[in-house]
Design goal:
Helices cover about 15% and strands about 15% of the residues. By secondary structure, the protein is α/β, with parallel strands linked by helices. The strands form 2 sheets. It has a 9-stranded parallel beta sheet with strand order 7-8-9-10-11-12-13-14-15. Strand 4 (about 55) and strand 5 (about 60) form a beta hairpin. The two termini are about 45 Å apart. It holds the Pfam family ubiquitin. InterPro entries: Leu-rich_rpt, Leu-rich_rpt_typical-subtyp, LRR_dom_sf, LRR_domain-containing, LRR_R13L4/SHOC2-like, Ubiquitin-like_dom, Ubiquitin-like_domsf. Keywords: Leucine-rich repeat, Repeat. This is LRR repeats and ubiquitin-like domain-containing protein At2g30105.
């Protein structure tokens, strides 16, 4: 027997089945709810923004302002969802064939190290070269663990590149590389608790950490101890949020956490006063904290493919250096941003910047074309 109930107001709670991209999505909802509300419920289930959804029931397109009851949508109704191209959040529409990890963060097959190939041995000449140059280059060497020879570099090592291997864990003895400035671990098998953040914090010269294309779901509070950090790259992972301790990184200039599953940004982001570039693209954000306006030196903010409908009210007025703003694939319209105080000054900075470079997104008329629709 199909489930059917009543709410406190006497409205029926019904279950509708929405067909989308080869799968059926059951949604419980009041029959007095509007089609627009149904779309809002479908957004996190499909990654398709509300304005990119077209719901079809019995051959007719459902109208946003009309209730399900008035549209004759009853319990057990089957509705088809069609998605407009480009109007999505995160890594794109969730499809039936989607794997546990977003395909966008997967490395092309040709670029992946062959797991059945033996680990490339470290020879004496390499160790001598590492010590002489300060650059330990071990990208695509089929590594599963950090070679002991690397630790023998001691204070000579300034850059450690372990990208595109199969490393799952970085030992605490990494702190022996006391002069390390850049740690690159892109495209490995790093997961939560794979890194000793306390030991990384002991590397007082460490300014850049790059962890793109791994399996990290949570950043621990200990990340806030890396007070010398200037760049943090952790794109194409599985993050659902950022710790409030991120605000302790007062020297951080670049934060790239695009292509994750982040639902909200902590208010402490406003304490990262040195930030110049922030990339929050392709996440699940519906709003930004007002405190982001406290970042006076912010020049570039990338927000594409999120569920955002508005911007912090003082962002243009207080972020006096902001000149790049990417809103493609969001719910924010040009009418909304033009009403924000300080818009004229931001638009002037944006125009001056684009006069100095070629950018296909800016038309000859100079109108704002960073993704905000007219309505």
């Amino acid at each position: 027997m199909e489930k059917e109930g009543k709410s406190d107001a006497g409205n029926r709670t019904i279950t509708v089945n929405v067909r989308f991209s080869g799968r059926s999505i059951p949604v419980e909802i009041s029959d007095e709810s509007t089609v627009k509300h149904l779309k809002s419920l479908l957004q996190p289930l499909t990654n398709v923004l509300s304005r990119g959804q077209k719901l079809i029931f019995k051959g007719k397109v459902l109208v946003d302002e009309v209730t399900l009851k008035s549209s004759e949508v009853g319990n057990g109704a089957k509705i088809m969802l069609m998605a407009s191209q480009g109007l999505h959040q995160g890594d794109g529409p969730i499809r039936k064939e989607a794997s546990n990890f977003p395909t966008a963060r997967r490395m092309p097959e040709a670029m992946r190290p062959k797991r059945d190939v033996p680990q490339v041995p470290v020879v004496k000449s390499q160790l001598e070269r590492w010590k002489a140059t300060g650059v330990v280059a071990l990208s695509e060497c089929n590594l599963k663990v950090l070679p002991d020879e690397v630790l023998n570099c001691g204070p000579s090592a300034r850059v450690l590149d372990l990208s595109h291997n199969a490393i799952q864990h970085l030992p605490a003895t990494i702190n022996s590389l006391s002069s390390l400035q850049k740690l690159i671990l892109n495209g490995n098998e790093i997961m939560d608790n794979s890194l000793s953040w306390e030991e990384l914090a002991s590397l007082k010269s460490l300014m850049v950490i790059s962890l793109n294309q791994n399996h990290i779901a949570t950043l621990p509070p200990e990340v806030g101890t890396l007070t010398s950090l200037k760049q943090l790259h952790i794109a194409h992972n599985e993050l659902t949020g950022l710790p409030s301790e991120i605000g302790l990184l007062t020297s951080l200039e670049v934060l790239k956490v695009n292509n994750n599953r982040i639902h909200s940004i902590p208010e402490s982001i406003g304490d990262c006063v040195s930030l110049i570039e922030v990339d929050l693209s392709s996440n699940l954000l519906v709003e930004l904290p007002e405190t982001i306006s406290k970042i006076k030196d912010l020049k570039a903010l990338y927000l594409r493919n999120n569920g955002l409908k508005s911007l912090p009210s003082s962002i243009f007025k207080q972020c006096c250096q902001l000149s790049t703003l990417d809103l493609h694939g969001t719910e924010i319209t040009i009418d909304v941003i033009c009403q924000i105080e300080g818009w004229e000054n931001f638009d002037e900075r944006r125009r001056l910047k684009h006069q100095k470079q070629l950018d296909f997104r800016v038309s000859s008329s100079g109108k704002f074309d960073e993704g905000a629709d007219q309505s």
